[in-house]
Sequence to fold (234 residues):
Amino acid sequence: MSIDIKHLRYADVAERCGSFRKAADSLAVKQSNLSRGVRQLEEQLGTALFERTSGGVRPTLAGRDFVSGVRRVLNELQIVIDDAKAAGRGEAGYLVVGFYTSLSAGNLRSTLFDYSNRFPQVRINTVEDERSHLHIGLRNGTIDIAIVTGEPGAESGRSMALWSERILIALPEAHRLASKDVLNWADLKRERFVLSSRDPGPEIEAILIAKLVTPGSHSTSIIRTSTRRASRAW
Fold:
């Protein structure tokens, strides 16, 4: 049996209003169209849903039970429709964000909290991994967005700059530069650096080489380590 949802809505509103005329006004349709739709619905069901009187309409016993069930169906249908629209606008669904360990706080953290508060229907999952693995996730669809440092490469696809951050350097208290609040690149020449072999260590190494190493110069040395303690120094 194919039943027009519009006719179900007619029956629902007519039962609420107790009048086909008031129901038609409420739905902004012609009374004749609403009355005809309810009659067609009754014919399809093989039973009367309303008793017609000069003062309006009232549901029959079968009509009362039917309209009660119709309301549940219409409410569930509206929820499904609203969810689909919200998902289409990006206001509901699932979002998987990939990032580096060093990006787990600061701007990224506050941005995710803000987004979660604005769109509570969106479930956010995070993936912490190396840059190459994040790009693989983007290609195979297991990651929706990857937050990485440095300039995006060709493998990144569509990209945009989000923010810029300072590089923090951990120094021994007795180091000659420890008393300075801000360091310039020139201050760091001839210093030895300890970097993580994991991301974003290689990218920071490239930045250091570009900023501090001149052709023929070997005054800056870089030590790579795989320990997490060393990676958190940056």
